[in-house]
Amino acid sequence: MSSSHLIAVFDDETGLVKAVEEIRGKDLQIEEVFTPYPIHEVIHAMGNKSKLQIFAYFYGLFGAVAVLAFLYYTSVIDWPINYGGKPFNSFPSFIIITIVLTIFIVTILSLATFSVRAKLWPGKQHKTYDKRATDDKFVIVVSKDDTDPGELGTIQGIMKANGAVEIREEEA
Amino acid sequence: MYNRELRGPLIIGEKSYHQISTDILAPTETKPGKWWFAMMTIATLASIWGIYSIYITVTKGIGTWGVNNTVGWGWAIINFVWWIGIGHAGTAFSIFLLILRQKWRTSINRAAEAMTVFAVGCAALFPALHMGRIWLFYFIFPYPNTRGPLWVNFNSPLFWDFIAISAYLLISFSFWYLGMLPDFATIRDRTTSKLRKALYGFFSMGWVGSSRQWLRFESLAFILGGIAAVLVVSVHSIVSTDFAVSVEPGWHTTLFPPYFVVGAIFSGFAMVMTLMIIIRKLYNLGDYVTDGHLDAIARILTFISLIMGTAYLTEVFMAWYSGSEYEIFTFFRNRITGEYALQFWGMIICNALIPQLFWFKKIRSSLLMMFIISLFINLGMWFERFNIVITSLSKDYLPSAWATYTPTLVEVGTYVGTIGIFLAGVLMFFRYIPMIAVSEVKTVRDIGKRKYD
């Protein structure tokens, strides 16, 4: 299946941000924007949201409950041992382990979620539209298949007006 | 809101983004100078001595060490705490400064985090070795087993240590690696060598810098940052409870958790300063690791040195104020004077007094003085750990049990070995991984240069 794209390359951040905000302001679709560092205005204008932090919160909740349950089971139910007269259900010492193990569990699960959601794992390859996007250029990619020719014209106009140094079309 | 004129620009000179990439990636793209190979040889020789010492320890046993019934913890535990302390700075630097939105962290965080990973790796070696029967290491895992099931002692700081250090190693490595993804992608896209493209491509995990990837990247960075910040404080507090929950005079004090954590950040920042001076001088990255950066680190070290001085005074005061004959003996007859007075006074001079030189602008501007003082701080912190571990154990409650401690060559060799491993790790890091966070530094390029409209 072939797809064709309109690719615009910018030299500086300000032009890029204005172009993206104008295009999105007209409710036109941008497939993706590639930048060498994160730009919050762009991320916001693209309208994507990540639920990663909500997931991390629930991983933490789950982790804390699981660890406390495990500690209670081993120390109170399964094999209670009298350590210097301390109570079997010794919450002050359990909380230390809970804090650290919860952090451990949140880390592992968040890393896994991030890997799946951002589609990044060792050896994965993504299509690069312009190699310079990881160096010093800012790239907007618009899908020609999903946009009317009229809208494409408007988008091109906005890009040119905001200082795109290169606009090209690509068939994949 | 942030007054930048005080600190000056974070990157000196008019640099394009491409120039920034080229400057910082140059060490990964060119053969290093002779000094690198010389240091690597030293590191390798030290590591070989270390590996041999570890071999002797594991095959012949802890009898090859100088520890005895009275002083049951010697160099191994001193070095364990020393390395963990150093390892705390990477996370403190990178993450505390991230949460406090201090943009000047961007030139330093990558090297600091690398230092953390190698330091914690070296530290983890010592509790493993001091077990003796290291082939039974799995006993420390609380897994359902056929021995009862016999669980571990969840009330013991020794178990808390194991969990805390494993968690710390995982999270510091993950945070360090996450930051490297965009930089590996930059190398992958720039290089003409097929091998480097394949290798860095593999490790960049397909990073392309799309807005969706950046969105999740920042999200994850704040998640990991938020919880790792908790770890910085809790890991070394847990290590301090190894001592604090005992009843030894000089150990059993509630001062220890904050004292250890602050001391850890102190030695770690000093090690970061050592590394950043090396990066600035030997790699000519003075435009990125500016005088402002080093000045800021020096000021923090001065402040922390004052805190350490206060802590030492507090310990001595409380020993006197308590009226406990054991505490008074431990501090006034066993530490301030006595057999190990050298280590005590070495600690005071190197930690509380010498860093006060940083009050003088002249000293703060001299790279050589800063380098020397940072080494003295790490020496002082080593003396502090020696002071805590050995003096309290050597002469505690029962005079008939008093004994002294001398390290054997095996223990010294293990320590030198870890220094070699750390050095080798850092040298490899310099050669193959961008030592400054390229993508992050690009975001602060224009700070301190022109007014925003």
What would the keywords be for this entry?
heterodimer, A: 172 residues, alpha+beta, Alpha-Beta Plaits, 4-stranded antiparallel sheet, 5 helices, B: 453 residues, mainly alpha
Overview of the structural elements:
The complex is a heterodimer of chains A (172) and B (453). With 172 residues, chain A is α+β, with helices and mostly antiparallel strands. Chain A has helices spanning 13-25, 40-46, 52-78, 91-118, 149-161, and strands spanning 4-10, 32-34, 138-143, 164-171. Chain A has two domains: 4-49 and 127-171, Alpha-Beta Plaits (2-Layer Sandwich); 52-118, no CATH class. In chain A, strands 2-3-1-4 form a four-stranded antiparallel β-sheet. With 453 residues, chain B is mainly alpha-helical. Chain B has helices at 17-29, 34-60, 75-99, 109-130, 157-190, 194-203, 211-244, 256-282, 291-322, 325-333, 341-353, 361-365, 367-394, 409-432, 438-443. The mean pLDDT of chain B is 92. Chain B is built from 15 helices and no strands. Chain B starts with 16 loop residues before the first helix and ends in a 10-residue tail after the last helix. Classes of the chains: A alpha+beta (172), B mainly alpha (453). Chains A and B meet through strand 2, helix 2, helix 3 and helix 4 of A and helix 1, helix 5, helix 6, helix 7 and helix 15 of B.
